[in-house]
Here is the input.
Amino acid sequence: MVSDKGLSFFSYGPYGYYILGLLLFPGLSLAEPANQPCDSLFCYSSQNQNLQFETAMRLQFDHGVFDNDGETDFQNAWNIRRARLSSGAQIGQYLSIDFTYDFARDDRSAIRNAFVRYTGSNNSRFTVGHFKEPFGMERLTSVQDLAFMERSLASQLTPPRSFGMEFHKHTSYWTAAAGLFTTGTESSGNDTKFGTSARITFAPKSDAGSILHFGLGIAHRNTDGQQEIRFRQRPETRNTDIRLIDTQTFIADSYTYIGIESAIARGPWALQAEYIYSHIGKARISKIEPGNTIHFSGWHIDLTWIVSGESQPYNHEKGTFGRLRPAHSIQHGGWGAWRLGVRLSDLDLTDHPITGGHQRNFTIGINWLLNQNISISNEYVKVLKVDGGEFANVSPAIFQSRLQIIY
Here is the structure.
């Protein structure tokens, strides 16, 4: 499977050129370079600094080799996981705009971010548009900052990017965010008319290398009682479209996610854990059935060690782990940054009358960050068990690698 057809943005006709222009124009339209340090592809600003633009890119090239077991038929594959181009603008002191498009996708989900944000002077902000909902430490951590190539199995029980509005405030010790949302470009069968999400975090210690973090999130979705929804998950790789656990479509009146998160870091060591509980109201196979209240759940535990000695960073504004930057990059004669990680994750999508299956995975991986722009990842993912569903009792393994380029 080579997912590169989405890169042909010209196939979108005039819309492809429009999107490309929208992304590149801000970075190329001004003659004065920005006075601030720039880590992105292009950074320009007006002479008085009241208008600043930035264009960035993110490329991820994956390769997966599968060890099949039982009924599985995974195929070794190359995959362009992400090919994102983003453009942001800062207008004056308080207003900012962000637009991100993923050319590795060929459907409406290619639009990742599209929002306008007002940031106040007291670390508060108000955002309107299409963006991530406030829920989950792993979910809100940028993919370029994750210790693993893919988010855990439990990430299925988190809301996608959505259209809506959000109020967010943070200090050095806590964050609080809440918003109202409707269907977004990432939504599929679980489209909803209305939803709310909220998250609070508390970090009594949040300096790099000395972190203690706790968080709680909730997301609620209403449906019209006639709408089909579906929960399914890949085995922590995007080198296949096969899902080992899958509820298939069913009908429900509503569903709610409740997430508990915690993290601790000391120097180069970090431990992160999350548990997500899902309450689904009046789940039923057909519209004429009365339905039952059912529950799904998922969790993950991650342990990482930065072998090269850098401390685990923390993002105070987002309430997540931050981006690891090598202390000694290879262009300066160093070896970059090396990080080892192990993860245990679990997702249970079975509760009568729904039998989606119950899966548990073990992952071990190593990241080599040559500098702040280029990294190489290698992982071994073992499916420890699958109970129920179409692939019951299978236990395949996955070897996967990634080259990531960020500017």
Notes: The chain has two helices and 23 strands. The radius of gyration is 21 Å. The helical segments are 14-28, 137-140.
